[in-house]
Amino acid sequence: MQHVKSEEGMRLPAALDVAGVSHAYGRKQALSEVSFSVAAGRFTVLLGLNGAGKTTLFSLISHLYGMRHGSIRIFGNDIGRAPGEALRRLGIVFQARTLDLDLSVYQNLSYHAALHGIGRAAARARIETLLAQVDMSDRVHDKARGLSGGQMRRIEIARALLHRPPMLLLDEATVGLDIQSRAEILAIIRKLVVTDGIGVLWATHLIDEVGDSDHVVILDKGRVLANDRVDEVVRSAGATSIREAFAALVGLAPVSAGKGTA
Length: 262
Ligand SMILES: Nc1ncnc2c1ncn2[C@@H]1O[C@H](COP(=O)(O)OP(=O)(O)OP(=O)(O)O)[C@@H](O)[C@H]1O
Known about the structure:
Elements: E1 3-5, E2 11-13, E3 16-25, E4 28-38, E5 43-47, H1 54-61, E6 69-74, E7 77-78, H2 83-88, E8 90-93, H3 105-115, H4 120-133, H5 149-160, E9 167-171, H6 179-196, E10 199-204, E11 215-220, E12 223-229, H7 230-236, H8 242-250
Parallel strand pairs: 5-10, 5-11, 8-9, 9-10
Antiparallel strand pairs: 1-2, 3-4, 3-6, 6-7, 11-12
Bound molecules: adenosine-5'-triphosphate.
C-alpha cells in the first residue's frame, strides 16, 4: 500500500490506492496491472482517450464490479474485504446522468441523505451548505427536469458529497457541457480540494482540464503510461507541454493548442 507523508512527517494512507489491478471482459483486456495512488487533499487527473479503461476502473473502485486481480484501498480500507468502510469514504459522480427528473432538487438530495442514514434536520443543513458551495441555492425547489446539463452536474456533485466523503471520483464530469459550464464545474471541484481537503480523481479525455500543478495519471489501452506531477511527465517525455507529452506517449499526431480534446 502506498503512503503519503503528512507535513508532520507521519505516514498517512493514500486517499485512494490502486495496486496491480487488471480486468477483462471475456477476451478483451480492459485494464492491465494498473497501479497509482491519489494523495489526500490533492487533485489528480486520470487522463485517457475514449476506451482507455477509465470507466472500467471507476466501476472497480466503486465496487460495481468485483475485483479479480489486484487491490484497491480507500484510506487504507480494502474495497474487496471491507467495502462498507471503503465506500463510506467515497463520493462518486458517474458519467451518465442520474438525477430523478420528476423530483425537486431538494427531494433528490434529501432521499439520498436518507440512504446514508442522515437525519432530516442534519440533511436540511447539509443540503443548504452544499447547494451554496455549488452555487445552486436558488434552485432548491425546482424540478430537476428544468435544470441545464451543467446545473444537473452541480446537483450530482452536491449529492456525492452529502455523507462528507474525503475522496471524490468524477468520471468525465464535464462531458456534453459548454465551455463556460465546464470551467465552472472544474473550478467548483478544485475549490473543494482546497477548502475541504478532499482527494479528487478527475477522469477526463480533455487535456485542457489538466492544470500545471496537478498530478496526472495517463491511461492508454488499459495501461498506465505516466503517473507523476504534470511538469515531471512533460520533462521526462522531452516535451514542452502536457498536450505534447500526451500525444507522444499515446502515439497521437500532435494536436494544435486551440483544440479542446486530447
Ligand atoms: N461491457 C463491456 N464488454 C466488453 N468490452 C467492454 C465493456 N465495457 C468496456 N469494454 C471495453 O473495455 C475497454 C475500456 O472501456 P472503458 O469504457 O472502461 O473506457 P473509457 O476510458 O471509460 O472510455 P469512455 O470514455 O469511452 O467510456 C474498451 O476497449 C471497451 O470497448
